[in-house]
Amino acid sequence: MKTVSPEVDLIGKNSYFVHLLRHQKKYLLILLLGTLIAPAFLAWKNQQPLLQHGESYYYLALLQTFIPGEALYQYAFILPLLLAVASFFLFFGWAGKTKLTPAFTFFTVLFLIMTPAFIHTFTTVSGYAALTFLVLLGLVLLTSSRWYKYACFIPFITAAFIDLLSIIIILFLLGTYYITHRKDHSLLLLLGAVMIAMFIISAVIWDAPLVRGPFHDQEARVDLISDLGSFSGVSFILLLLSGLGIASAWKKKQGYLAYVLLVLLILSYMYNTQTVFLLSLMIVFFAASGFILLFERAWVLGVLKKFTFLVVLLTLLFSTMTYIDRATLRGPSLEELQALRWIEDHTTSDTLVFSDPEDSYLVRYFAQREPFYMFHEERSQPFRANLTATVLGSTYIDTTFPILEENQISVLYVSSTLREKYPADQGLLFVLKNERFKLLYSSAGQEVWMFKKAGVR
Amino acid sequence: MDRKYQYWLWGIFLATFIIRIIIAFTVPHFTYESYFHLRQVEQISQTGLPLYNDPLSYGGRQTIFLPFFQYFMAFFDFFLPLEFAAKIIPNLLLASLVLLVYLIAKKITAHEPASLWAALIAGFLPTLFTPNAFTPKVLFLPLLFLNIYAFLNLKDKKYLYVYILTFLLLCLTSGSTALIIIGMGIYLLLRALESKKIEADELELIIFSVFFFIWSQFLFFKSTFLSEGLSFIWKNIPPQIISQYFPEISITQALVLVSIIPFLAGIYVVFRSLFQLKNQPAFFLISLVVSTTLLAWLKLLEFQLSLAFFGIILAILFAIFYQESSAYLGQTKLSRVYQCYPFIILALLAISTIYPAVATAFNQDTPTDSEIEAFRWLDENTPEDAGVLALLEEGHLVTYYAQRRNIMDDRFGSVRNIEQRFQDLNSLFTTSFETQALALLEQYQVQYLVLTPAAQQKYDLAKFRYFTRGCFQREYEQEGTKIYMVKCTLQELP
Q: I want to staple B390 with a disulfide (CB 3.0 to 4.6 A). Which of A99, B322, B450, B461 is the partner?
């Protein structure tokens, strides 16, 4: 029974696989475009904005000061796609200069493209999508032997503006390059010094956050695994494969560096789940190692190897399809957009709007009104974070009304998402039955309420 | 196999089966949860498909489950009356554990008398002695132990196919198959800690099992995972009653349900195996014990199932204990004790296993004749779209016998605001305020209220406290079971 059948070598000698490896760039690019265009297509079909998720509108609101008008909104959805395609070619450019095997490159990119964290990051205007592009560009320039290698300062310094964690990661990568390549020492030292200076300036003078975000309600137990309902993260099967990869990296030369980065990213994730994309990159890296380890070796039970291979790929595909299918649920929906435009048209520009913090980015961008509290302000505005939680949770008007009055909140935006998240007979949704609230707008589950001043009829 | 032992084995099997069957037919009905599965089997027999979109449960909802058990039973429904098949087949399946446990124990000990003792214990495990239960567990456990037996015999190629087939069926029978996956993980860990080589075929089967299990569960429960997140483990059970499903482990209760003799022997064997013996199959079984204990302790596995699984494994491990202890006694000068040893064991088992098993069987939680009659009356005398208030436990009686909408039953998965619904159901039995009751009855579109003796005992009431002749009319009363019709609705004043 214990004979190894040679025909089951799925990764090394299989003719289909050899063909795939030879033409991997073409196939993977097609897959990349398909995966990233699909959510936008579904959004377009549902008449939703092509850019989803609050993070996109956080950055669009920032960019609006430089690029006013509708053009930004109309064409911004191309930006993440361009970053993805550019990063794709840059990765292959960089991988060609390293000792990475074609099989490893193929599975890393394949798994990455199929990962919800990647799809999420590269279908939104995201800081970490920009970081990926800039770091890859920096690495490609740095590893070149031409004069323009010195241009690598530009992308690395630009990436430093995203957040402090980005600088730490760049420093780590430069350190790894220093240890593993043992060349360009003076350039690397200078680059390292500049990045440290950037870190100090960003932290002390500009008061930059360690991680920019979060832009959603964090739940560390769930945010990492897309199969459990998260809008980012990785599939459970990839996590399992990465376990194999993590175990096998132990035996590799300088494998400890990967562990150090993994620990750093796990800590960052626990601090702020916005970094889930960076952790996902690491998981994908280990998962590809685990997958190759699993299927490159000869199996005693050859048929079972083929079947397991198929099951793994099917599970991954299934997980990705499920994610794409619900990608447009992140919002905003057409109905939300209409309600927000209504606020813009029917309230004064100095109106402070209370909403679910996840909706606050949409309020700022679409309604052009200042939201009371946004998720990423949790550390800079802890007082407002507490007040928001109190208003959403309290059933007593003696608690809620003074908060609304003292903060001069006159408009409340109640989206269908907020109604789904909170019970109708408790908290804010219950308090809304009080006569001091007046329903101004209601359509398809979206509501705008006015909070009347005491004594006003 | 010695013919003498063969007779003994078949004798134990038949004794187990016959006693189970006698009790199954003595107790006239099934346990409450069985009626959900009976209804699904009927549905499959009629349409070929399970009732995933149930119009009656919770007033209409989607309920996803692994359907192999229901399909398996639907096959028998073609040539046997369902209620008859539902008593014969499950008891036959659970009695077959006797044979499987014998085979596994013999594989580990190669000692036939010891294996027979293990078979006897497995046949009369109190926790499994519920002959009127018609649930997937009755198929899951025999399949699981057949799978374990195949895993222990992988050297023989035909068992490889048995393993693969049983594993595929297990994945389609119960999510508790995770138990074996985690057990395998612990097995690998223990072997790695002992610096023992892991057989390539074992490792490959484990890898295949892990990936196939994940894939199969995602196929069925994709939407449940997405909507419930990690809470899917606790099956959306309302917090008020979660302790019934995942209770704090009471050692005393566990001792009674898995029987004290195999429990103590099991602890001894686990200790010896982990630190002294080098018996590979025993190692695997111990890994399963560790995984069950861990999962039950972390409240990730239902208490009843973990006890059943734990009990069977302990029965197998008892064989090792018996083998070692009888060998030890044979070497000492206590020859009389050695000769009497089987009788001592039998006496101890009769007191600690067989008696509690039969007592458990006669104390099964089943509805009475009068309760069943009341639900049948509802089917014949109420409009088809009526909603019925009954106890949570009686929810499946409403959908099976009355064929009407219930407010709640014990299939909690994917139901929104389950906590609130459970609270409302309790309020309908406990409130004294008519307006509150009417508002809730209207909210859940309930027109008939059933008050069975079980409900009267549970809530300590003879009639609903909000009962008034103006709003409720008694339509049925027999042997303590009452059915009321709601006549009023609550309206806002203009």
A: B450
Domain boundary among A326, A350, A383: A326
The answer to whether position A91 is within a domain reads yes
**Rounded Cα–Cα distance for residues A262 and A279 (Å):** 7
Do residues A450 and A410 touch, judged by C-beta distance below 8 A? yes
Is the CB of B161 inside 8 Å of chain A's CB atoms? no
According to DSSP, the residues that pair with B485 across neighbouring strands are B448, B473
Rounded to two decimals, the ipTM of the complex is 0.84
Residue A423 sits at the chain B interface (C-beta within 8 Å): yes
Contact B205 A2 (CB under 8 A): no
Question: What SS3 state is found at A134?
Answer: helix
* Surface-to-core class of residue A388, CB atoms within 10 Å of its CB (0-12 exposed, 13-18 middle, 19+ buried): buried
Q: How many structural domains is chain A composed of? A: 2
Residue A150 lies in a domain: no
State the Cα–Cα distance between residues B405 and B84, nearest whole angstrom.
26
B205 chain-A contacts, CB cut-off 8 A: 301, 304
To the nearest whole angstrom, how far is the Cα of B187 from the nearest Cα of chain A?
16
Q: Are A318 and A398 within one domain? A: no
- Whether residues A279 and A391 fall in one domain: no
Closest C-alpha to B402, from B489, B483, B488, B461:
B483
If we measure between CA atoms, which residue out of A280, A258, A274 comes closest to residue A162? A274
Are A303 and A393 contained in the same domain?
no
Here the tokens at position B262 are 């195999």
Residue A236 touches partner B, C-beta closer than 8 Å: yes
Residue A395 lies in a domain: yes
Rounded CA-CA distance B312/B303 in Å is: 14
Query: Do residues A103 and A83 both lie within one domain?
Result: yes
Per-position pLDDT tens, chain B of length 494: 678 888 999 999 999 999 999 999 998 899 999 999 999 999 999 999 999 999 999 999 989 999 999 999 999 998 899 989 999 999 999 999 999 999 999 998 888 889 999 999 999 888 888 999 999 999 999 999 999 999 999 888 899 999 999 999 999 999 989 989 999 998 888 888 877 788 888 889 999 999 999 999 999 998 888 888 777 777 778 877 777 766 665 667 666 666 677 777 777 777 676 666 566 677 788 888 888 888 877 777 778 888 888 889 888 988 888 888 888 877 777 767 777 878 888 888 888 778 888 888 888 889 999 899 999 999 999 999 999 999 999 999 999 999 999 999 988 888 888 888 999 999 999 999 988 899 999 999 999 999 999 999 988 888 888 888 888 999 999 888 999 999 888 776 66
From A298, which residue of chain B is nearest by alpha-carbon distance? B200
Q: At A133, phi and psi to the nearest 5?
A: -60, -50
Q: Which helix (H) or strand (E) holds B330?
A: helix B303-331
Residue B204, chain A, CB below 8 Å: the answer is: yes
